[in-house]
Design goal:
It contains eight helices and seven strands. The protein has one domain (14-259): NAD(P)-binding Rossmann-like Domain (Rossmann fold). A seven-stranded parallel sheet has the order 3-2-1-4-5-6-7, with helices on both faces. It is 47% helix and 13% strand.
Length: 261
């Protein structure tokens, strides 16, 4: 049974993807555009956005820095002024740097929080009144947060990244509980390893690595099926879900055996 309203026709949808100049966001924007949606792509990388929308119908670029609260508010108002609505908004802006406690870096910890979590707060603050208004009128309204399986439980090298993704998972769950009765769909996207600029700096083997295009296929299918959590690839994510059920001692031992860390 779907937990969210299924999205069965993209041709009438206005979708705002924040963090879409590269990687998962860009691939998802392209898949939705091909399905007939009008996509608004945002990120700090103005050139990347302009390159994406060049010669593409139903696509527009709206550069924005998610750490700038006022800028996010202006961007949301601009979309509503021009299109009258935002049917689905996806927060996929993110920052990642492998970090361990033995090399603690406060600046990196704060940067992760500002981009991965506070930026999401800025977006929610900017779009929630519009989504609630649309839902009360019987119109489509959906908010989707891209977290990660790194937020399931503690993992080596994820000292800065993991806690931010755990925060997004919890945030999505609370938003769902609060907004379901109002008619606003809420989903959380938990990818495994995806071949993006964020993961390009990893110096370890990434199991079940997939392309951004494959990630986009899973994401759009999840929205169409009305899922709350969309996780992929399942050959990797189901293994991590099973590890969540272990007690602390067995879990830490299993992670040590798997990673050597």
């Amino acid at each position: 049974m779907p937990l969210n309203p299924r999205i069965t026709n993209w041709s009438s949808q206005v979708v705002w993807l924040v963090g879409a100049s590269t990687g998962i966001g860009r691939a998802t924007a392209e898949r939705l555009r091909e399905a007939g949606a009008h996509v608004v792509v945002s990120a700090r990388n103005r050139e990347g956005l302009l390159q994406f929308v060049r010669d593409r119908a139903r696509a527009e670029a709206l550069p924005v820095d998610v750490t700038d609260r006022a800028a996010v508010q202006r961007a949301a108002r601009d979309i509503v002024d021009r299109h009258g609505r935002i049917d689905l908004v996806m927060y996929c802006a993110g920052h990642y740097k492998a970090l361990r406690a033995t090399a603690f870096d406060l600046d990196e910890m704060v940067k992760h929080q500002q981009i991965n979590v506070v930026g999401a707060y800025h977006l929610i603050d900017a779009v929630l009144p519009t989504l609630l208004r649309q839902a009360s009128a019987g119109q489509s309204a959906h908010l989707s947060l891209v977290a990660s399986v790194a937020g399931y439980r503690g993992l080596p090298n994820a000292l800065a990244y993991g806690p931010t993704k755990a925060a997004l998972i919890n945030l999505a769950e609370v938003l769902f509980l609060d907004l379901r009765s109002k008619g606003v769909g809420v989903s959380v996207i938990n990818p495994g390893f995806v071949e993006t600029p964020l993961t390009a700096g990893n110096h370890f083997e990434m199991p079940a690595l997939i392309t951004p295009e494959e990630a986009a296929r899973h994401i759009v299918a999840g929205w169409e099926a009305g899922r709350f959590e969309v996780h992929f690839p399942k050959r990797f994510t189901l293994w991590l879900k099973a590890l969540r059920l272990l007690g602390d001692g067995p879990y830490f031992a299993a992670i040590h055996r798997a990673t050597g860390l």
